[in-house]
Amino acid sequence: MSSVMTTHDAPPATTPPTGRAIVLDGVSKTYDVKGGGAPVTALTSVDLTLRAGEFFSLVGPSGCGKSTLLNVVAGLLDASTGQTRIGDRTVSGPDRATGIVFQKATLLTWLTIEENVLLPSKIAKRLDDETRARADHLFELAGLADFRKRYPSELSGGMQQRASIVRALVGDPDVLLMDEPFSALDEFTREGLNDELMRLWTDSPKTVVFITHNIAEAVYLSDRVGVMTSRPGTLKEIVDVPLARPRGPELRSDEHFYELVSRIRGLIGHHHEGTNR
Predict the structure, then answer these.
(1) Same-domain status, 35 and 168
(2) Are residues 150 and 267 part of one domain?
(3) Region Disordered: what ranges (predicted)?
């Protein structure tokens, strides 16, 4: 029997959670089609409540609305119906208390890594001693302390993505939204960055919504995994991940880990079978 302990409680960490609860209430999103075509419904009737400090992943087939849902939570898209709340705030647009990491690092090539990381705080006029100290700490945690004066072109893709995560965290956001941040990386680099992300999150457990196509990645990182249906996307099922924290590479060979990966893969597969009949 595996020695990995389990827990269904909120994620234990070295410091108390600093995130905020997220509530989606009946959220749907329909896009108008240019040229008078029929509107396309990307999301329909999504109800979801996340605890403060929870790490939550979304998986599902391509085009199921995962990124649309993330953009609604970020305030980058307006929902067609329903409401989204972060803490006591109703989402009506972007907010500096929400950090975002996209598929590509989107670093400015003419700025050093340090300048890229500090740029959002500089624009927001919040570049103070506390922010600089937080950046120093995050550079150390992410293994980038020796590369902060380098330019993006001098770093590997994995290191650039680490820098983009540090940039999102340096403003100390309540919520971190991540849209397939490691999808373009090889498996070895991806697993290493999963470990880096776990260290960063354990040090300061924000509420995280993480989009991925990689089921093993979702299980490794998350407290719960939401499985979405094909378009129009909605939540098919939410799977608890009762694996103890802190987590390390040894978890990837644990039988309970593989049981959860297999279960989630089955949920996605069953839905495809049903839609193809």
Answers:
(1) no
(2) no
(3) 1-20
